[in-house]
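Troubleshooting: if your tokenizer reports a length mismatch, compare your output against this known-good record of 475 residues.
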Amino acid sequence: MNFILNEIEQTDKIFYNKYLSDIKYIINNFVKYNISLTTKNINEIKKYALIYNQLKNKYYLTDNTQIINIINILICINTITTLTLDEFIKNYQIQILNNKIISINNNQYIKQIKPITLTYINNMNKLYGGLNKEITYIITGNTGLNHKYLEDIFKSYKWKKETLNTKYCVFIWAEMSESFNFDKKIYNIQCYLKNMLNDKKTIATNKWLLYTKLKEYYPKIAKKYMAETYKINEIQNIQNKPYILKPVGIQACGGKGIVRINNNNQFQEIKKCINNNTSNCLHYDLLKNNKNYIISEYITNVHLWNDRKYHLRMYWLVRPSYNNKPFYQTLFNIGKILIAKLPYKNEDFSNKLIHDTHADTTPRNLFFPNDINLNQEQINKIFNKMKKVLSYVGNMLEKNNVKPYPESKYAFEVFGCDFLIKNDLNIILMEINDKVGMWPVETDKNIEYYDKFTKKYYEWVFNEGIYPILSEYNN
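Known-good structure output:
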């Protein structure tokens, strides 16, 4: 490889500097398919490096295997006739959707192609045209997103919609209802793929397990990216500084039952309430239905949005290993910003309007990173820190052998991950939710802005969770 690279650098330094990574891919492809590498075919290498770059940046293909297959087809075709990339895309009626090739139609041009090229095309249709097979799907629940954008993708493949009365469905997309429950019928339908992992995911979604297991496996990560946390009955006293108490368990979601205190007297009163079930104690109405509480140091040095406290709700997709493919996780690059009602001050901790950050106190639909007053470098650092800590949580899920429920052959899941941003732009992972509400701000009339988010979200889910598995589905 080096002598080719040196030759290109010496003869065309501008091209070398601009397309170096593309050149390396093409050289590796030539080596893989036993295509000769000599100084005589440098122009050919440069030509296909440019095509490789166009497929990524003009046609927005993201699957490297597809890109290399296209180049191999072009290499074979161009031994007979010369086609530009645009002519090739048009003549072979290549269909591209959501950054993926979904089919190559073998029309009259196929007669001009060598058998090896036909093999490439058949492989492409086998691997990436699989979604044109008849696939049935169910969409159930409602977390606030417009399902139209997900159904539009399914309709483009001519998938067939099924009802919850069926016994088998290829794919089930399950969202919870407004009461934070899933329709029980989905557990009685056999399916090929479902967006739901089994209960071993609680190592991440249970607040106490998340902290203790991260601390056990990766103590430095837990110390850096999570607030120090204890079970309420494990400690006798607290310092006179702010703490937050949270319930743990199935019903611990949506900000229910959260209590903030800032001195030991309040703490002793709450312990008495929990242990003795005393109805006249502080916060009894919040504590009476859940005695399983944890207590964490309350983060006060927070970054503010227009002088108000906020947290980020990010979306993290996890896909267990399957068919010898590795465990996979990815973080969506857009998140929601949820704001407190009143300007922040480091006092009056029982005032929820200052310290609670929810959709119903957020003035309009706000998204990270577009609606946050940070530069691109700061945004990148925050996003990379969130990816880093979640990668360790992903390792925990993989070690815990998270997998589909018995009625589903394969599965993935999207989790809602809540982060605080500190005023030094370090992050704190607050919790990870498997019951993910995504309702828009009701008072915001800019529906188009939220719809753009919804469309991008479902495209991301399709490309990262649905497509890789269903492209291999066989009827």
